[in-house]
UniProtKB/TrEMBL annotation, chain A:
Record key words, sorted: Cytoplasm, Lipid biosynthesis, Lipid metabolism, NAD, NADP, Nucleotide-binding, Oxidoreductase, Phospholipid biosynthesis, Phospholipid metabolism
Principal location class: cytoplasm
InterPro entries recorded: 6-PGluconate_DH-like_C_sf, 6PGD_dom2, G3P_DH_NAD-dep, G3P_DH_NAD-dep_C, G3P_DH_NAD-dep_N, NAD(P)-bd_dom_sf
Keyword Oxidoreductase (UniProt): yes
Positions of the Glycerol-3-phosphate dehydrogenase NAD-dependent C-terminal domain: 188-326
Binding site residues for NAD(+): G18, A19, G20, N21, W22, G23, A148, R263
The Glycerol-3-phosphate dehydrogenase NAD-dependent N-terminal domain, residue ranges: 14-164
Organism: Enhygromyxa salina
Protein name as it appears in the record: Glycerol-3-phosphate dehydrogenase [NAD(P)+]
Gene from which this protein is expressed: gpsA_1
Biological process (GO), any one: glycerol-3-phosphate catabolic process
Reaction equation(s) it catalyzes: sn-glycerol 3-phosphate + NADP(+) = dihydroxyacetone phosphate + NADPH + H(+); sn-glycerol 3-phosphate + NAD(+) = dihydroxyacetone phosphate + NADH + H(+)
From TrEMBL, chain B:
Residue ranges of domain Phosphatidate phosphatase APP1 catalytic in the record: 38-181
UniProt lineage: Bacteria, Pseudomonadati, Myxococcota, Polyangia, Nannocystales
GO molecular function, one term: phosphatidate phosphatase activity
Record-given protein name: Phosphatidate phosphatase APP1 catalytic domain-containing protein
Pfam families according to UniProt: APP1_cat
UniProtKB/TrEMBL annotation, chain C:
One GO location term (cellular component): endomembrane system
Organism field: Enhygromyxa salina
The Phospholipid/glycerol acyltransferase domain, residue ranges: 162-295
UniProt entry tagged with the keyword Acyltransferase: yes
A Pfam cross-reference name: Acyltransferase
Keyword Metal-binding: no
Membrane topology: Peripheral membrane protein
Keywords of this entry: Acyltransferase, Transferase
Protein name: Glycerol-3-phosphate acyltransferase
Top-level taxon of the source organism: Bacteria
Length: 352, 300, 553
C-alpha cells in the first residue's frame, strides 16, 4: 500500500529477467506499448549498453530499443516490489536464476516465463522449477510462433499466454498486446510449455529434410506426424490434446519447420550434410534446444512406453550418430498406424 | 479308513488302529531326508490342565488367547520350523490326546502364535466314549502309537524323526517304543503284550501291531526330547538311554538343538528359559533298544 | 469448542451469508440472466420433494419436512419479493440449524476420560479368566500409535485455527482421531458426520455431543451444500478447530486418496481471507494432514464389494455395513487387542491454506524454507481481493500438498505386505486376465508356495526399505524390523494372524507350506494400500480412478 502511493507513471511495474534476443524483444514490445520496463542482464556491460545506448549489439544488432527500457545487472533492483516479472533465461540456467529469485520475491508478485525447454535429468518444466524454488504461485507461460527478429521489426504475430490464474493472463496481456501482437489465453500450462519445447525436435528433422531436398510433401508428412507424437507425449504428461492444435502447438511447429534461420533447423541441415553433432554445434555458435529436447523426449517416451518413431529417429541421428538417410529409410518402412491416434481421440473426448 | 468328516472336509476321520481325527496338509517329497518334528501339545507346548476332567471341560469355553504357551516353547517351535538358515519350513506335526471338539481353539491359538504345523492328529474321545471303552479315555498309548505309525507311513523313508513330549505321562516310553517299532525290534506279539501290560485294550494293541507289521524296518527316530514338568531334575527319564533328553526349559532344549545344528543361534537366542538338559543314563543297549527292558513284555 | 450461544451465532451468520450470496445480483447470474429468489426456492422445493418422495413416509422427520415445505409452497406464489427473501431465510436457517451440532463440553470430557478405559474393560470383560487373573488390562493408548509432526500442534492451535485432514478408510476414523486429539491434549475438533452415523445404533447418540455436525448426503439441493460449506467456513472463522475428511468418503478400494474433494478444503483459504478482511486477531488457518493406517479395516468387505460393484457413486451412503453391527465391532476390537495390533496415526507437516509448510510458530515457509507472508497471495497492490478462481487454484495446490503428505506418511502393516506380494504373484501368473477376471479366478483351491511368497516379500521389503529411507512411505514396527533384517517369518506370521481371525473367512490361510487365498476381494483391498507406488513394477490399479467406483477407460 505504501509502495502503491509512491509509484507514479515512471516507476516500472514490470521487469523482464534475461536480456538474450527473446528477453530483449519482450522488453522492447512492452516498452513500445508505453510501459516503463526494467530489463535485467546478467552481464554488466550488456546492461550498460542497453541502458545507455538502447542497443543490444550481441543479440539484436542494429536495432534501436524502446526508450522505456531501463536495464540493470542488479537482480534485486529488478525484482523487488515489481508486480509482474517475465522470466526469459535459458532453460539450463533457469533453476539457478530461480534460486536467486527465491530470496527476493514475495507471494503477491506475478510471473510469466517465456523459456522453451525442459530441465535435463529432472525432466522438470519451467513452471515446476519456479514452484520448487520460490514462493511465487501466480505464474504462467508465454509461448507461440514468435521469431524475435520479425517481432522487433514490427511484423504482425500471435502468441499464447497460459496460466491457471486469470489475473496473470489479464495483467501480462495488458502489457504485451498491441496492434501488432494478438495475445491468446489458455489454462493448459503443461500443454503450452511442452508444445514450445518438443517442436524443436521436429525442427531438426525438418532441417534434415530440407538439406536432403525431400520436397514439400515430405515436410508436411514430417510436421503432421511430428505433431501427433508431440501430442501423445504431451497428453501422457497431463496436457490437453486441443492445446496442440493451437498457436503453441501446430502454430509454433510450422514456423520452426519453415524457417531455415531457426537454430534447430540449421543443426538438422548440418547433420544431414554429414557433420558430427559437435561440428554442427560449433558451426552454429550456440546450442539448439532441440538437441537437449530430443534426448529428454527419447528417455520419457521410452519410460512411458509411448510410440514415437520420429523423435526416436532424431535422437539416434543427433546422439548416436545414425546416418540421416538410414533413419529416413527406417521411418518410411515402419508399420503404418491410424492417421489420428486413438489415444488422442479418447483424450479429446474426455476433455470435452 | 479315510472317511471325510461332514462339517469340515479338511479333517480325516480315522477308526483304525484307534479312533482319531487328523488333518494332514503337506506331502514331503519322496527324496526328503531332512528332519521332521513331532510334538505333543499339552504340557509340551501349551500349559493346559487337560488330564483333569475339570480342565478338560473348561478348555472349549476359553478364548484361544487365554491359553498360555509354556515359556519359550513358541519361540522354540519357530526356530525348529525355520531351521538353521532361518528360511526353511521344516516339517512339523502335532499329536494330541485332546478331543477334536476343541480343535478350533487349538488351531486358533496356533494361528495367533504363528505355529506353522503341517499336520495335527486329535484323539477321538467321543468315539471312545460311544464305544463305552472308558478305560481308554485316559490311556493314550495305543492312540499315540497308532497316530505315529500313520505319520511314519506317510513320511519318505529317509526322514529323520525328532520327537517332543513331556514327563507328565508316558511320552518317553511311548516314543521309545515307537522308535523300536520303526527299527523292527518291537513288533508282533511282544508289541501287543507290552501294550496290554500298559493298559491298552487287546483289540487296539492288535490293530497297532498289524499296522506296524507293514512298516519297513529302519532306524527313523533320532532323538526324543522330554519336557520336565513333573520332575525338573529329570529323574523320570534317567532309566532311558542317552538318546532320550530331558529339558527343564525350552531355553535349555534350544541350546542343545543349536549345538546339534538343528536351529540357528539367532533362533536359540529368542528362546527363554534357564537350566541344563539331562540325558538318559542307561547304558547303551547292544541291540539298540530305546525302550528299557523292564518296560517290555517278556522276551521272545 | 463453541458455546451454545456461539453456535447460534454461527447459524445466523451462515444464514446471512447464504441469503446475501443468493440475492446478490452478480453472483446470482446464471446463463446470462439473474435468478429470482423464487427460482432458488423452487429448486429447493424440487430437490427436497424428490428426496422426501423416496423417504420412509412414517418417519417423524420426513413428516415434519413435508409439512414445512408444504407451507413454503403454499405461501410462495402469493408473497412479495421481500417476503420471498424471508421464506428463503427460513429454509436456510432450518438447514443450518439441522447441520449445527449440539456439543456438550461436559459430555465430551466425560466421554474422553471414561471412554478408553471403559472400552478396555469391556474387552477384558469378554475374557473372564483374564479379569480374574488380574492381568494387565489392555489399554487403548497401546494400540493407537500417534506419531509424526505432533510437537507443534499445541502451539499452532494457540496461534490460529486447525483443520485436521486425515485419510478416510473407516467410520472408526473420527473416533480414533477424537481419541488422538484428546491424547495430544488438544481441544475437541468439530466435524461433519454423515447422518447415517447419527442413526447408527452404536455411536449415534454420542455423535452430536462429541462435536459433530450433521451432513445429510441424501440432500442434493445445491442450497443445502452451500449451507454446509458455509457452516464449516464460519465455524473456522469463529476459531473452531475442524476435522475434514478431504477424500469426502471412505476409500472404497483400500488405497489412500489420490484426489480430494476441493469444496470443503477450499473453506480454509476462504476462512483465512475473511479473517484478514475482518481484521481478526488470529487469522491463521493451519491445515494438518494425517494418515490413519489400520492393519485390519472394520468395514473392508462392504467397501471393496462396493468398489467392485462400480457403485461407489450410487451407493454413496452405505447404511447397513459392519459399522452398524455390534458383533463386528466386538470382533474388530477384540482383534485389535488380542492380536496386539497397532493403529497408526501419523501427522504430516502443518500447512497454510496455500499448501506451504508452516513452522512451529505458525509462520509460512516457501519451498526452500524461507519465511513468507502468505497474505500476499490474496493481495493486489496491497489490498485484499476476493477472487474465487485464484483461490480454487490455491486449494488445488493445497490438495496436491496434502496428497503428498498422505503418500509419504502412509504406514505399511504386515497385512498390506502379504496381500501385495500374493496379489502380485497371482497377477503375474495370469497376465492375460483383467482385474475382474483375475479376482474371479482366485479361489481357495489355488495356492502359492510359501518360499515363493517369501522371496517376493523380501524383494518388496527391499524396495519399501529404500523408499522409507527416502521418506516416501512409512513402515510399522514389524514391517520395519523385517525389512532391516530381511527376515520375513515374523511378518508373515503377523499377517496370517490378522487375516485369519477378523474377517468372516480368512483372507489368506496357510495350509502346510502353501498359502491359500480364500478371499480374493479382501486380498485386493489390503493390497491396494500400496497401490500407486510402483512397487515391484506393479501397475497402478485403483489410485488413478479416485475413491469411488471403478471406471473403465
Amino acid at each position: 500500500m505504501a509502495d502503491d502511493t509512491t509509484s507514479d507513471e515512471t516507476t516500472p511495474r514490470v521487469s523482464v529477467l534475461g536480456a538474450g534476443n527473446w528477453g530483449t524483444t519482450i522488453a522492447h514490445l512492452i516498452g513500445s506499448n508505453g510501459f516503463p520496463v526494467t530489463l535485467w542482464a546478467r552481464n554488466r556491460e550488456l546492461a550498460a549498453e542497453i541502458d545507455e545506448r538502447h542497443q543490444n549489439s550481441r543479440y539484436l544488432p542494429g536495432l534501436s530499443l524502446s526508450d522505456n527500457i531501463r536495464a540493470t545487472a542488479d537482480l534485486a533492483a529488478a525484482v523487488r516490489d515489481v508486480p509482474l516479472l517475465f522470466l526469459v533465461v535459458p532453460s539450463q540456467a533457469f533453476r539457478s536464476v530461480c534460486e536467486q529469485l527465491g530470496e527476493l520475491v514475495r507471494p503477491s508478485q506475478l510471473a510469466v516465463h517465456a523459456t522453451k525447454g525442459i530441465e535435463l535429468v529432472t525432466y522438470k518444466r519451467m513452471t515446476q522449477i519456479v514452484l520448487e524454488e520460490t514462493c511465487l504461485r501466480q505464474i504462467g507461460v508465454l509461448s507461440g510462433p514468435n521469431i524475435a527478429r520479425e517481432m522487433v521489426e514490427g511484423k504482425p504475430a500471435g502468441t499464447v499466454l497460459a496460466s491457471r490464474f486469470p489475473r496473470v493472463i489479464e495483467v501480462a496481456r495488458a502489457h504485451l498486446k498491441s496492434p501488432q501482437l494478438r495475445v491468446y489465453s489458455n489454462t493448459d500450462v503443461v500443454g503450452v510449455e511442452l508444445g514450445g519445447t518438443l517442436k524443436n525436435i521436429i525442427a531438426i528433422a525438418a532441417g534434415m529434410a530440407t538439406q536432403m531436398d525431400l520436397g514439400e510433401n515430405a515436410k508436411s508428412l514430417l510436421i503432421t506426424r511430428g505433431l501427433s507424437e508431440i501430442a501423445r507425449l504431451g497428453v501422457a504428461l497431463g496436457a490437453d490434446p486441443m492445446t496442440f492444435s493451437g498457436l503453441a502447438g501446430i502454430g509454433d511447429l510450422m514456423v520452426t519447420c519453415a524457417s531455415p534461420i531457426s537454430r534447430n533447423h540449421r543443426v538438422g541441415a548440418a547433420l544431414a550434410r554429414g557433420l558430427s553433432l559437435a561440428e554442427a554445434i560449433e558451426s552454429l555458435g550456440m546450442v539448439a534446444e532441440g538437441v537437449k529436447a530430443c534426448k529428454i523426449a527419447y528417455e520419457l517416451t521410452t519410460q512411458l512406453k509411448i510410440r514415437s518413431p520420429l523423435m526416436h529417429g532424431v535422437y539416434r541421428v543427433v546422439h548416436e550418430g545414425l546416418d540421416p538417410r538410414a533413419g529416413l529409410g527406417e521411418l518410411m518402412a515402419a508399420a503404418v498406424q491410424d492417421d489420428i491416434d486413438p489415444t488422442l481421440v479418447r483424450a479429446a473426448a474426455k476433455g470435452a | 479308513m479315510a472317511k471325510r468328516d461332514d462339517d469340515d472336509t479338511e479333517y480325516e476321520l480315522i477308526r483304525s488302529p484307534f479312533p482319531m481325527v487328523r488333518k494332514l496338509q503337506r506331502t514331503l517329497a519322496p527324496t526328503y531326508d531332512g528332519p521332521a518334528y513331532i510334538w505333543d501339545i499339552d504340557k509340551t507346548w501349551l500349559d493346559t490342565r487337560i488330564s483333569q476332567v475339570k480342565g478338560m471341560l473348561k478348555i472349549p469355553f476359553e478364548f484361544a488367547v487365554d491359553k498360555r504357551a509354556l515359556p519359550g516353547t513358541t519361540a522354540l517351535l519357530h526356530a525348529l520350523r525355520e531351521g538353521p538358515s532361518g528360511r526353511e519350513h521344516r516339517p512339523l506335526f502335532f499329536i494330541t490326546a485332546s478331543p477334536p471338539f476343541i480343535r478350533k481353539a487349538i488351531e486358533r491359538k496356533m494361528l495367533i502364535d504363528g505355529i506353522e504345523f503341517d499336520g495335527i492328529t486329535y484323539k477321538d474321545q467321543l468315539e471312545v466314549f460311544r464305544r463305552r471303552e472308558f478305560g481308554s479315555l485316559r490311556e493314550h498309548t495305543a492312540f499315540k502309537l497308532g497316530a505315529l505309525l500313520l505319520l511314519a507311513r506317510a513320511f519318505p523313508e529317509q526322514t529323520r524323526i525328532y520327537m517332543f513330549g513331556d514327563d507328565a505321562e508316558r511320552d518317553a516310553l511311548i516314543y521309545s517304543m515307537f522308535a523300536d517299532i520303526c527299527a523292527g525290534r518291537l513288533r508282533g506279539d511282544r508289541l501287543i503284550d507290552t501294550q496290554v501290560r500298559l493298559g491298552v485294550l487287546r483289540h487296539y494293541a492288535q490293530d497297532v501291531a498289524t499296522l506296524a507289521a507293514d512298516l519297513p524296518a529302519r532306524e527313523r527316530v533320532h532323538a526324543i526330547h522330554i519336557n520336565l514338568v513333573r520332575e525338573p531334575d529329570g529323574r523320570r527319564i534317567l532309566a532311558y538311554d542317552p538318546r532320550v533328553v530331558g529339558y527343564p526349559s525350552a531355553g535349555a532344549a534350544a541350546r542343545l538343538l543349536c549345538e546339534r545344528g538343528l536351529i540357528s543361534a539367532r533362533g536359540r537366542d529368542r528362546v527363554e528359559g534357564a537350566g541344563e538338559v539331562v540325558f538318559g543314563r542307561a547304558a547303551a543297549d547292544p541291540e539298540g533298544w530305546w525302550t528299557p527292558r523292564d518296560k517290555l513284555a517278556c522276551s521272545r | 469448542m463453541l458455546s451454545v450461544e456461539q453456535v447460534a451465532q454461527v447459524v445466523s451468520e451462515v444464514t446471512g451469508r447464504i441469503i446475501e450470496r443468493v440475492s446478490a445480483p452478480t453472483l446470482g447470474l446464471q446463463a446470462g440472466r439473474a435468478r429470482s429468489l423464487a427460482e432458488t426456492i423452487n429448486e429447493t422445493l424440487w430437490w427436497e420433494q424428490d428426496r422426501l418422495s423416496k423417504a420412509d413416509p412414517t418417519d417423524e422427520e420426513t413428516i415434519a419436512d413435508k409439512q414445512f415445505y408444504a407451507d413454503i409452497r403454499r405461501q410462495l406464489p402469493r408473497v412479495s419479493e421481500a417476503e420471498q427473501r424471508r421464506l428463503l431465510e427460513r429454509i436456510v436457517h432450518r438447514y443450518a440449524n439441522e447441520i449445527a451440532g449440539r456439543f456438550s463440553p461436559t459430555f465430551y470430557n466425560l466421554a474422553a476420560r471414561v471412554g478408553p478405559p471403559m472400552l478396555s474393560a469391556l474387552l477384558t470383560g469378554l475374557s473372564p479368566r483374564r479379569l480374574l487373573e488380574r492381568e494387565t488390562i489392555p489399554r487403548l493408548e497401546q494400540h493407537v500409535i500417534i506419531e509424526g509432526e505432533i510437537a507443534n500442534l499445541g502451539r499452532l492451535r494457540e496461534r490460529g485455527t486447525l483443520v485436521v485432514t486425515p485419510t478416510h478408510s473407516s467410520n472408526l476414523d473420527s473416533l480414533v482421531i477424537g481419541f488422538a486429539v484428546h491424547a495430544l491434549g488438544l481441544p475437541p475438533l468439530t466435524y461433519g458426520a454423515g447422518l447415517n452415523l447419527f442413526r447408527n445404533p452404536i455411536v449415534g447418540k454420542f455423535m452430536h455431543n462429541l462435536g459433530a455436525y450433521t451432513v445429510d448426503r441424501r440432500k442434493r439441493d445445491p442450497l443445502y451444500k452451500q449451507t454446509l460449506k458455509a457452516y464449516a467456513s464460519v465455524s473456522l472463522e469463529f476459531g473452531q478447530d475442524n476435522l475434514f475428511f478431504p477424500g469426502g468418503t471412505r476409500s472404497r478400494s483400500g488405497a489412500i486418496e489420490r484426489t480430494l474433494k476441493k469444496g470443503l478444503l477450499g473453506c480454509s483459504v476462504s476462512a483465512y481471507r475473511n479473517n484478514l478482511i475482518r481484521g481478526r486477531a488470529k487469522p491463521d488457518i493451519y491445515v494438518v494432514p494425517c494418515t490413519i493406517s489400520y492393519p485390519l479395516v472394520l468395514e473392508a468387505s462392504t467397501l471393496i464389494e462396493d468398489w467392485l460393484a462400480e457403485a461407489g457413486k450410487s451407493r454413496y451412503i452405505i447404511v447397513d455395513d459392519e459399522f452398524s453391527r455390534w458383533e463386528r465391532w466386538l470382533d474388530f476390537l477384540r482383534g485389535i487387542f488380542s492380536l496386539d495390533l497397532k493403529i497408526h496415526i501419523r501427522f504430516g507437516h502443518a500447512l497454510d491454506p496455500f499448501g506451504n509448510e508452516v513452522d512451529g510458530d505458525g509462520a509460512s515457509r516457501d519451498p526452500r524454507g524461507r519465511p513468507i507472508d502468505p497474505r500476499g497471495y490474496l493481495e493486489v497492490d496491497g489490498e485484499l481481493v476476493e477472487d474465487p478462481i485464484r483461490d480454487a487454484e490455491y486449494t488445488r495446490s493445497l490438495e496436491q500438498r496434502i496428497l503428498r503428505e498422505f503418500s509419504t506418511e502412509n504406514v505399511v502393516h504386515p497385512t498390506h505386505v502379504l496381500a501385495f506380494a500374493c496379489f502380485e504373484l497371482l497377477r503375474r501368473g495370469r497376465p492375460e486376465l483383467d482385474l475382474y477376471r483375475l479376482l474371479g479366478s482366485v479361489g481357495p483351491e489355488q495356492s502359492l508356495a510359501m518360499p515363493e511368497v517369501e522371496r517376493e516379500i523380501v524383494a518388496l521389503l527391499d524396495e519399501l526399505d529404500q523408499r522409507t529411507r527416502a521418506d516416501q512411505i512409512r513402515l510399522s514396527t514389524v514391517v520395519g524390523e523385517a525389512a532391516a533384517r530381511a527376515e520375513v517369518a515374523e511378518l508373515v506370521r503377523a499377517a496370517l494372524r490378522s487375516f485369519g481371525t477378523y474377517h468372516a473367512k480368512a483372507v489368506v490361510e496357510r495350509r502346510g507350506v502353501r498359502l491359500h487365498v480364500c478371499d480374493a476381494k479382501l486380498l485386493f483391498y489390503y493390497r491396494n494400500h500400496l497401490d500407486g507406488y510402483g512397487l515391484r513394477g506393479a501397475p497402478t490399479l485403483v489410485s488413478s480412478i479416485g475413491s469411488g467406483g471403478a471406471r473403465h477407460g
